[in-house]
């Protein structure tokens, strides 16, 4: 039996307060979502269009017997025209007890962020609904620093304008 140094408790406490985020790119910006909401990451494939769906809802796919709505976050966030190429990725998410796919330009990595790395999201005008932005994180990468926009993906996907969830789940 080895003697305890006391550092084990510090490591456990630090791990309990840090959270892991999957980071991805949309246009020139980098975003992060709670890794626990991610079911899988897959390449973009064609979708079955749904008549009269909002522009950001591309359609649905059949994922191992589950019909999954596919949302293009580039279109949702008005980040320019969406291109679908070899780098385009679908992040399959479990949100509000539903499976939903989110199309992004590319997936970067998984980062562990401590609370002190995350700043509160700035307050915006009432015309801009940014309630799904949980904060901004600054991440050092060599000599440079990059900014991550952290999203509450469950709140975003459950919002009324997404038209993905039943009214009862909002």
What does this structure look like?
- It is a single chain.
- The chain contains 3 helices and 11 strands; from the N terminus they run H-E-E-E-E-E-H-E-E-E-E-E-E-H.
- The strands form 2 sheets. It has a 6-stranded mixed β-sheet with strand order 8-1-2-11-10-9. The protein has a 5-stranded mixed β-sheet with strand order 3-6-7-5-4.
- It is mostly beta strands and 170 residues long.
- It starts with 6 loop residues before the first helix and ends in a 12-residue tail after the last helix.
- 12% of the residues lie in helices and 44% in strands.
- Strand 4 (57-63) and strand 5 form a beta hairpin.
- The longest helix has 11 residues, at 7-17.
Total number of β-strand segments? 11
End-to-end C-alpha gap: 52 Å
SS-based class: mainly beta
What's the tally of helices? 3
Name the helix and strand elements from N-terminus to C-terminus, one letter apiece: HEEEEEHEEEEEEH
Largest sheet: 6 strands, mixed
Which stretches of 5+ consecutive residues score pLDDT under 50? 9-15
**Rg result:** 18 Å
| Average predicted local confidence, pLDDT | 83
The helix content, as a percent range, equals 10-25%
Strand order of the largest sheet: 8-1-2-11-10-9
The geometry reads as globular
The fraction of residues in strands falls at 35-45%
Indicate the topology.
Elements: H1 7-17, E1 19-26, E2 29-34, E3 38-43, E4 57-63, E5 66-72, H2 73-76, E6 89-95, E7 98-104, E8 106-113, E9 118-119, E10 133-141, E11 144-151, H3 153-158
Parallel strand pairs: 2-11, 5-7
Antiparallel strand pairs: 1-2, 1-8, 3-6, 4-5, 6-7, 9-10, 10-11
């Amino acid at each position: 039996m080895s003697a305890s140094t006391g550092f084990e408790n510090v490591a456990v406490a630090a791990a309990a307060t840090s959270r892991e985020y999957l980071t991805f790119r949309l246009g020139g910006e980098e975003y992060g979502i709670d890794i626990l909401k991610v079911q899988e990451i897959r390449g973009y494939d064609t979708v079955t269009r749904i008549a009269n769906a909002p522009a950001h809802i591309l359609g649905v796919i059949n994922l191992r017997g589950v019909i999954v709505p596919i949302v293009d976050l580039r279109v949702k966030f008005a980040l320019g025209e969406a291109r679908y190429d070899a780098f385009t990725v679908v992040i399959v998410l479990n949100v509000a007890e539903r499976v939903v796919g989110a199309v992004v330009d590319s997936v970067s990595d998984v980062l562990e962020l401590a609370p002190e790395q995350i700043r509160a999201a700035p307050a915006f005008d009432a015309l801009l609904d940014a309630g799904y932005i949980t904060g901004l994180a600054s991440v050092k990468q060599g000599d440079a620093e990059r900014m991550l926009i952290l999203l509450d993906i469950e709140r975003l996907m459950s919002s009324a304008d997404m038209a993905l969830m039943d009214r009862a789940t909002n």
